[in-house]
Amino acid sequence: MSATAAHRLVAAIAPDALAPGTVLVADTLAADPRAAGPGGGADVPCPAAPLVEAELRRLGTATVRGVLRLAPAGTDPVSRDSAAVAALLRGGGAGVGIGVAAPPDDHAARLAARAALASWLAVAGSPRTVLLAAPRSFCAGVERAIEVVEHALRQRGAPVYVRKQIVHNTHVVGELSERGAVFVDELESVPEGATVVFSAHGVSPQVRTEAERRRLRVIDATCPLVTKVHVEARRFAGRGDTVVLIGHAGHEEVEGTLGEAPEHTVLVETVADVERLEVADPERVSYLTQTTLAVDEAAEVVDALRRRFPALRGPGSDDICYATTNRQDALAAIAEEAQLVLVVGSASSSNSRRLVELSQRRGTAAHLIEDAAAIRPDWLAGVRTVGLTAGASAPPRLVEEVIAILGGLGPVRAVERETARETVRFTLPSALRGPG
Question: Is the pLDDT of residue 37 over 60?
């Protein structure tokens, strides 16, 4: 682990007390006041600390975060017996640092600390450009759903129960849980007479009937664009059509839509599913789509349906929501220019996964990350241009954190590429309108 033009290793002093098997990851490198360092002895921030900490945890090593004090000048920073070591990165004005420390007599912890540090130093120091896709992050339906839960907690007090995840993002769910929201899989877990919020993905009529039977106080946070699909399912089935729903089996939105007319609706995911499809009357077939599909893939399935059923009828306007389309278009505008695409979003988020697939279909490596800590050092090897976006259920702050943390590896220039401007807003459901 030798110094390069991008950074230099320096010695640091391990804290007096570290639990066995635990490595300290520096949030700050405290300068030795007796030595002239970067900034004339000023402390050095370590924005990349979450990356180093995550790498250590992948190695099975416990971590703590804190301040690491730099050692006096002349201390050997690369000795195999060093309990603490740090690196100062230069470029782009003020420097940043990375530092780790292990218990002095803990050989395994020292090895893990140095391995984690080395893996990030291997991709640190060089400048990078981050191409920001816009629009990205929250859409109007997600903002409304989150606001519904927040408003209900203020108006009715905790606990407020939520059936399923209000939106598919673990950070959002975790933050609302801390404020008193209780997330349940099914209504049987909700006390009779309690307040329950239906998630943005919608529910079937059977769920609504169960809520009424148990005298639950329902607040419906279903996205209006999902409600539109439900209305279409009832209308198409009511006129005697076989309703072909294009979507992903098991997704909550799909389950809710299927429940509107289960005896008249069939689910297809692929062109191959269309080829196997059998219907009672080929002249009376209509189709609907899940709102978060990849636009190009959904179009292929619709084309296959039209070939098999020339009389096919569809919705008056696209079911794939504007936000899904906008985010896919925005990513397409940067994907081929980027060497790597990072999509911020949870694995449960359909629209986030579609963004990863879109980038990969365009030949650019892409990864779905829950947050910045999920970035792996090998992804960044040789990468100078990173495309960055976020699914419609991912908080904007997570994107900002990715940029800041990448800045802990060297100079970062963020360039936003906007392909559309979203002005859609949805009002709160009637159950919550008014004070509170």
Answer: no
Q: What is the mean pLDDT of residues 73-83?
A: 73
Residue 133 main-chain phi, psi, to 5 deg: -75, 140
Which residue ranges are tagged as binding site?
A: 139, 168, 201, 223, 251, 291, 321, 349-351, 393
Q: How confident is the model at residue 431 (pLDDT cuts 50, 70, 90)?
A: confident
253 is catalytic: yes
Catalytic residue among 53, 253, 255, 260: 253
Listed in order, strand segments (DSSP E) in 44-169 are: 44-45, 62-70, 84-89, 96-101, 128-134, 160-163
Q: Looking at the structure, do residues 374 and 292 belong to the same domain, yes or no?
A: no
- Domains contained in the chain, number: 4
Strands (E), 185-318: 195-198, 217-220, 242-246, 265-268, 285-289
pTM attached to this predicted model: 0.93
The pLDDT score that the predictor gives to residue 39 is: 42
Q: Residue 179 is part of a domain; what is its CATH number?
A: 3.40.50.11270
Cα-Cα-Cα-Cα torsion 73, 75, 76, 77, nearest 10 degrees, comes to: -70
Q: Assign 296 to helix, strand or coil.
A: helix
46/409 Cα distance (integer angstroms): 9
Q: How far is the C-alpha of 364 from the C-alpha of 333, rounded, in Å? A: 12
Q: In the numeric block, which tokens belong to residue 153?
A: 């907690």
